[in-house]
Amino acid sequence: FSVELKMPQLPAKLLPTEIPLNPGAVSATIRGDYSTAQNTLTLQNIEVASSTGTSLEGRGAISLGEKPVKLNTTLRLRNAGLDEIMALMPKPLSDFAYTGKASADIHLTGAYNDPDISGVAWNDQGKAQGNNLAVAQMALRVPFRWANSLLEIKAAQFRGKNLIWGQKEKTQFKIQEASLFGDIVKEPQRPLRMATDFQIVEGGFSVPGESKAGERLRVKGRFACQDCAGNASFNGEANVESLEL
Measured in whole angstroms, how far is the alpha carbon of residue 105 from the centre of its chain? Predict the structure, then answer.
């Protein structure tokens, strides 16, 4: 069989409610075979393109004879809006405004209405803006797994340049380059947990009026957050390798 579709927008009911994607107008081509004996749909080629430039390619199989219907599909997502990808992350990561494009390799298995989703998402050029944090240039690599409403992110990597943390009328940190490597877990009905190694390659700080200032700051350390909701509390350690006051 071969199917070609053109839609003014992606039907929202095709996606779980927690995936608020809005790719605009969508065109799709699907080719494959159907086995009557096995009641299985084999998808040899999936191509989806949106008016925003996002594309999705893949292949897989759908077992129609099982209840519920089972999936085993591999997909390649390219040029998706970084803000839409990060909107799927738990708070506080989803609270920032993001600019840039992202890609992902995704594998879906299990029941179609509650699949086991695993893969890796990444971007090379992006920006982030929050209440007290701005990142002018960042790169992300996020291996993830979503199963039974449990989100696990293992060995995620973040590299940022030209970070500003804080406000001008308060103590403000300016960091030329920093990196994070860590794990994140979000269980159902429980706050996010995080453990991260970090490194500040070149940074500094200033207090109001610049009566006190620091530069050439180099730090390595680790911090963890067991309850990252509301008034989050952190614990950790840091090794200051250099600092000029």
Answer: 12
Contact 187, 150 (CB under 8 A): yes
- Residue position matching structure tokens 């960042």: 138
28: left (phi over 0), alpha (psi -120 to 50) or beta: beta
Residue type, 178: A
Could you tell me the maximum CA-CA distance found in the chain, to the nearest angstrom? 79
- Tell me the C-alpha to C-alpha distance, in Å, between residue 151 and each of 67, 190, 205, 233, 240: 25, 11, 35, 21, 33
| Burial 181-196, CB ≥16 within 10 A → b, else e | bbbbebeeeebbbbeb
Per-residue pLDDT of 186-220, as tens digits, reads 888 888 889 999 999 999 988 887 677 889 999 99
Query: For residues 15 and 136, what is the distance between their CA atoms, to the nearest angstrom?
Result: 32
Q: Return all residues near 41 (Cβ < 8 A) that are at least 6 apart.
A: 32, 33, 34, 35, 61, 62, 64
> pLDDT tens digits for 105-136?
999 999 988 899 999 999 988 999 988 889 99
Helix and strand numbers, DSSP H then E, in the chain: 1, 13
